[in-house]
Design a protein that fits this description.
six-stranded parallel sheet; 19 strands; 23 helices; seven-stranded parallel sheet; Rossmann fold; elongated; 4 domains
Length: 585
């Protein structure tokens, strides 16, 4: 029988999956849930060494002679300090030890709790990986704990061997052992290019059998010609579709910009079930489109294979099973070289997604930030550079149809408001062709000092959407009432005109469609002798409404969604919001 504590259940289950069976145990109260659980499990070989310092060195010798990782487990407080010397020795000798330290309630740290010190990261400079597990109380905690234990165990022999540290907090002393079976856990495999050849082969076989392979391409500042060639070959041979957004900077046969059709405010959860893949293959950086959230909501229904050149664990869909430590070029080339010559994509899955994306109805938008951004970005010439500030600029641009070969940047590694314009100006300074920035008022005023940088060239073109505040808070439903405008949306009545002119930039104010058309004559004039900035004035509440009206034109509606709309129609938007908040308490 096993302990009731989920964190230790996960540890034990994963130790068994990794084939780690030798454990050196030091007596103590806090590690009893682990100790008693494994001493009754015939898979484990247990050794009792009371003194933790001696136990650590004993385990070091075991690991060296067995050429296998060994677990050391102790109670909380100064018992953990006695592991220091053997852990340091293991680190410098490259010996794989799993240092399992039991801990107490994190809320009681520094509150004179008996036998409690700060154990988090205590061996950091002398272990290859250190993780502090959550107290597992729900499904998300379980996933988090499982991922952290995987991260630690994977580092035991990753680019050299060495010790890892797993700290296990618990809120109360628990000696209940009434669990017959360990939970199902996912062991994350990491495949390197020169190892695990049998696993590589098995993965290719799985690809051959799959009917629905979704490739999600995150942010890339550049994509090699080789990658484009290999991805097209892969698409032609395997039953796949390639989900992109403009920041992916990938254009080849098989790509679909799913930003709109899988936006969480457009596609319903029921409708997205029609597109659940068998396997998701991800590469690149962050993903801004709704595909990330929709896949996360359906975690566990598919396998996630992550291509990471440094081998990092990136479980963005909470379904990670395999990490391929290689370049995307290597991965797709390997899959292509090992495919059958007669193998061909039947395009069923691709056509389902493409048909859904093509069914979206785009109206003639009224004057708004949607109209202005869409109008401008669709007019940008091929082979230009476009930088998008966060949120609205990214969203609306991805609802648009850009010309070919436009390189698109955005600071979405951290997705922060600061520095968008400075980054753009750095990019534009080493280009001679026209370079474009789409930015909102809050991001602009945050970084306004950057336009006085002396390296500002005449190729700079800035579209500033001034809707007097953070429209994102209207869009996300965070706006509650007029009071929200003060501190949430940061409503203002500031214009950029004075500062822009002072910096020697051509300034054009726009308030309507006709003014925008006139401004474009200068904005897209390559021969113009100065940088140009258009400040387009819109209103954030109206901008948000225009977007939701657009969604409503062709958004799929299931019974749950239809019920919500009926309620809103009967009692009104504000009353519906209050009702939702009441039930969420």
């Amino acid at each position: 029988m096993y302990t009731e504590l989920k964190s230790y259940q996960i540890i034990i289950a994963l130790l068994k999956q990794y084939g780690i069976s030798h454990c050196v145990l030091s007596a103590g109260s806090r590690n009893v849930p682990f100790v008693h659980s494994i001493e009754e499990d015939p898979f484990f070989k247990c050794y009792s060494v009371v003194d933790e310092r001696s136990a650590g060195y004993f385990a070091l010798g075991l690991a060296q002679e067995l050429n296998q990782p060994v677990v050391i487990s102790c109670t909380s407080s100064t018992a953990t300090c006695n592991y220091w010397p053997p852990v340091a020795e293991a680190f410098y000798q490259g010996v794989p030890l799993i240092v399992l330290t039991s801990d107490r309630d994190p809320a009681m740290l520094g509150q004179w709790e008996d036998q409690m010190i700060d154990q988090v990261g205590m061996y950091d400079r002398h272990v290859k990986k250190s993780v502090n597990l959550p107290v597992v109380e729900n499904k998300k905690d379980f996933w988090w704990c499982q991922r952290l234990v995987n991260e630690a165990l994977l580092e035991l022999d990753h680019h050299g061997k060495g010790p890892v540290h797993i700290n296990v907090p618990m809120t109360s002393y628990n000696i209940s052992f009434n669990v017959k079976n360990l939970p199902y856990v996912t062991k994350i495999n990491r495949l390197e290019t020169d190892k695990n050849l049998d696993l590589w082969s098995s993965k290719v076989e799985k690809l051959k059998q799959s009917k629905r392979i979704l490739i999600t391409c995150g942010q890339n500042s550049s994509v090699s010609d080789q990658l484009k060639i290999e991805m097209e070959k892969f698409f032609h041979r395997y039953n796949s579709a390639i989900s992109v957004e403009y920041m992916s900077n990938l254009s080849c046969d098989g790509v679909i910009n799913t930003f709109t059709c899988w936006d969480t405010r457009y596609v319903t959860e029921r409708k997205f079930l029609d597109f659940i893949p068998d396997i998701v293959i991800s590469f690149g950086g962050n993903i801004m489109s709704g595909v990330k959230e929709m896949l996360k909501r359906n975690c566990g229904k598919f396998e996630h294979w992550s291509i990471q050149e440094d081998g990092r664990i990136v479980d963005m869909f909470m379904s990670l099973t395999t990490v391929f430590e290689c370049s995307p070029e290597y991965f797709f080339s390997y899959a292509n070289q090992n495919s059958d010559e007669t193998q061909k994509n039947d395009r069923t899955y691709y056509n389902e997604i493409k048909s859904y994306a093509d069914s979206i109805v785009y109206p003639e938008f009224e004057y708004s930030n949607v109209y202005v951004i869409k109008n401008i970005v669709e007019s940008i010439p091929s082979d230009s550079m476009l930088h998008l500030a966060i949120n609205g600029a990214i969203r609306i641009t991805n609802y648009s149809m850009l010309k070919p070969n436009i390189k698109v940047y955005a600071n979405i590694g951290t997705h922060g408001i600061d520095g968008c314009m400075s980054s753009f100006l750095g990019q534009a300074s080493v280009r001679s062709a026209l370079s474009f920035l789409v930015i909102g008022d809050l991001a602009f005023f945050y970084d306004m000092n950057s336009i006085r940088i002396r390296h500002l060239g005449k190729n700079v073109r800035i579209l500033l959407i001034n809707n007097q505040g953070g429209e994102e808070f209207y869009y996300n439903g965070m706006w509650q009432d007029e009071a929200s405008d003060l501190h949430t949306t940061a409503r203002h009545h500031t214009k950029a005109e004075g500062w822009v002119k002072e910096c020697g930039i051509k300034y054009i104010a726009v308030h309507c469609k006709d003014e925008l058309e006139a401004a474009k004559q200068v904005f897209f004039d390559e021969a113009y002798d100065r940088p140009v900035l258009i400040e387009a004035f819109t209103e954030m509440a109206h901008d948000s409404k225009v977007l939701y009206d657009f969604y409503a034109l062709s958004k799929p509606v299931d019974m749950k969604q239809k019920s919500k709309e009926v309620i809103k129609g009967v009692i009104g938007q504000e009353a519906a919001k209050k009702l939702k908040n009441m039930f969420n308490k």
